[in-house]
Amino acid sequence: MDxxxxxxxxxxxxxxxxxxxxxxPVRPVERALITHGHSDHARPGHGAVLATRRTLDIMALRYGxxxxxxxxxxxxxxxxxxxxxxxxxxxxxxxxxxxxxxxxMDGTRIVVSGDYKRSPDPTAEAFEPIACDVxxxxxTFGLPVFRHPDPDKEMGKLIASLKLFPERTHMIGAYxxxxxxxxxxxxxxxxxDAPIYIxxxxxxxxxxxxxxxxxxxxxxxxxxxxxERADYRGAVVIGPPSSFSDRWARRFAEPLIGFASGWMxxxxxxxxxxxxxxxxxxxxxxxxxxxxxxxxxxPQEVWVTHGREEALVRWxxxxxxxxxxxxxxxxxxxxx
Amino acid sequence: MEAFxxxxxxxxxxxxxxxxxxxxxDYFATTPDPDRGYALAALTGTLDxxxxxxxxIRQLVLEQMDPELFRYSYDYVGDLAETVSLVWQAPPxxxxxxxxxxxxxxxxxxxxxxxxxxxxxxxxxxxxxxGRYAFLKLAMGNLRIGVSARLAKQTLAQMSGIDITEIETLxxxxxxxxxxxxxxxxxxxxxxxxxTPAIFHSVMLAHPVGDEDLKKMDxxxxxxxxxxxxxxxxxxxxxxxxKLYSRSGDDISETFPDVLEAVDFEGVxxxxxxxxxxxxxxxxxxxxxxxxxxxxxxxxxxxxxxxYPAFIxxxxxxxxxxxxxxxxxxxxxxxxxxxxxxxxxxxxFDLSPxxxxxxxxxxxxxxxxxxxxxxxGVMIKRRESAYQAGRVKGEWFKWKRDPYxxxxxxxYAQRGHGKRSSYYSDFTFGVWTGPPGEEVxxxxxxxxxxxxxxxxxxxxxxxxxxxxxxFGPVRAVRAEAEKGFVLEVAFEGIALSNRHKSGVAxxxxxxxxxxxDKPPIEADRLETLMGLVGER
Lengths: 336, 536
Fold this sequence. Notes:
The complex is a heterodimer. By secondary structure, chain A is an alpha/beta fold. Chain A folds into two domains: 3-145 and 284-325, Ribonuclease Z/Hydroxyacylglutathione hydrolase-like (Metallo-beta-lactamase, Chain A); 151-279, Rossmann fold, CATH 3.40.50. Chain A has helices at 3-6, 53-63, 151-164, 179-189, 203-211, 267-272, 287-297, 309-318; strands at 8-10, 13-16, 21-23, 31-33, 46-51, 68-73, 79-82, 85-91, 99-105, 108-112, 134-139, 170-173, 196-198, 219-221, 236-239, 256-260, 277-279, 301-307, 322-325. In chain A, strand 18 (301-307), helix 8 and strand 19 form a beta-alpha-beta unit. Chain A is globular. Chain A starts with a helix and ends in an 11-residue tail after the last strand. Chain B is of the alpha+beta class. Among the domains of chain B are: 204-400, DNA ligase/mRNA capping enzyme (D-amino Acid Aminotransferase, Chain A, domain 1, 2-Layer Sandwich); 404-532, CATH 2.40.50.140. In chain B, a hairpin with an 8-residue loop joins strand 14 (404-415) and strand 15. In chain B, helix 2 (17-30) packs across helix 10 (149-160), helix 3 crosses helix 7 and helix 5 (67-77) crosses helix 6. The longest helix of chain B is centred in the N-terminal third of the chain and has 14 residues, at 17-30. At the A-B interface, helix 6 and helix 8 of A face helix 1, helix 2, helix 5 and helix 6 of B.
């Protein structure tokens, strides 16, 4: 079967005509397969949703139990038949519960990677390469300038800064799902065992991670009303980046603003955001991981989506791999 | 190199002065000689390094990378050094130890045309991305990280407990990698002996005068002299070594060879650099805009020397020959200065005359009607005052001619309209508030005229090169203690206002002068403005 017949972009998202379902649709549809819980991929209001148990749990936490008409959990590796199309979910290493989705019919297999990464992460199931004819890869960091350093070394910068500026509250911006928990887990692995204060919006997700057996240590709510500014001297506060421009953030002791993101690789981005302590920690592949993954999987064709498609397509053509950009709309470039 | 690269990465992102001090102090305390000395030189602009052309760096990276992928990368990042630092591919295998900063500096300085490519490739291979960035910035000669020489020296002072004026005094006599300086600062060796005393000594500054000040002062204890509208300089001469420094210690000798060639005495004098003829040659003093023709020029043409001759109107004497006379009273120093100037070249030096007065009222009359248009007010100095570095309370006062003038720091700029629509011509400026060491700028007004077209070019260029943030048509500009743009703002009146964050509103503010010679931290404080409220 021609791969373009099996999956094709539509305004709602990537559509499988023979199966009658969408993958990560950006508008409400009858039948949706969801790769992971980030809000640009997992939206409420669909009819039937098929996703991993953890992704379904995360969607319920974020949108309420009635986030869709009906839900079905897919175990990793399990094959499910939808109108004659075989689908299976495989770990993507992006955030807890994140999956690649393999779609197969008449001997043609396409793997939709969703968002994925290859670097080790104690808070997400490790990526598994799946052989396929067409590999649909993200390209969030699809430029040769993105070479994410060792996250452990980045955490060392935070530890060093805490020693150098013990009077300042270190406020680390991290996206609520995945990044925040990863940052906390990485800090714990560095031996940081003091309480970590979290913004209210992280509370449910952190508890969920802990209930799934991921140890995040002593987490406390960062509510300043109940405590003194001085209590936060030298403390680590983690919150979504947007919260740092709220009035909420004003009350901490001489806040030192950090941000854990792959975007922190580029100095101009760091300056634009007014970040003092950039921590280059990404839940996406960097350039080397993207190109190594494509080589490892060895698909006949690569379709490139959300991000810097042109550079990765160029790399594929230089390396004799057929590739084309897949123009999907609605996915945030910034979410890392 | 890694420590230096980390330091740069953090310094550029740390806006607070105290934060920078902490980072610098930590680096100097934990980095061995001679690396830290080379870093100090890089930060203070004294590092002499073989510069590498950007075109060569670009060639090297294109040897190992597809030009199209490089173009995508460069377009995204927007900075050559940063792009190359990120995309550079070291050969696979065991990574060798990264080189030390001192090794990098020494290697760069040993390069010749024949071996430069090999060495640059090898250096880039051995460094990590952050190290490559620091190295490329250093090698291409555009290390801009928002740390002034003074801030670096202040860090040394704070670390060692030694007064900054002592460090500044030694500074121009020392050279990278400053091993003897660090040894002294850490108490491991005696103070370095200078071969020459022709070095910079921190200047003594005046407070702006308020009515309240004068009421408490007995006119008999003070002498007055005119405040001339030039730039404050320090001339230092010892043996063959003659140097002219600006008030902030920058060596401006090369710009004023006419003055230095005329020096036939030894000592250190404090004075105003002016254009025109000295009083002794009976020719007029020219305006500040004439002086601007001479400022900031690296090469001086004979036409400049002829049309804009420079001279020094001497205010004070710090050293007479080798003898330090700063501890003496002002009158004694002036007597010595008078003798020295009497013997000095008549066309290049004269003595700032004192102004006779018997009451503050009579001095005010003189101030309002000065005998020369290049006078911008009067200076009031206690007759017994010793020469002390900095702004010492109760010793020296400046009493400027009307209107009110303050030195403010440019904070935001907005594009103009009509003819000026391509220029950033509307400026919001601020003054300092907060305790020493933690000063912050608070906006106090906005001005969009008072400057010439030439000055507008300078202002616009500064805005474009120093934008830190954009809000629609408005740009925030760099405004830090040591880096920024000081504007002398003239205004007719000032009143309390609860509509403004600062609490004051100015009437008719305009930009009187660009103070390119002044570091922002020396701009005025909010208290000074508050003190002006209701004065008239």
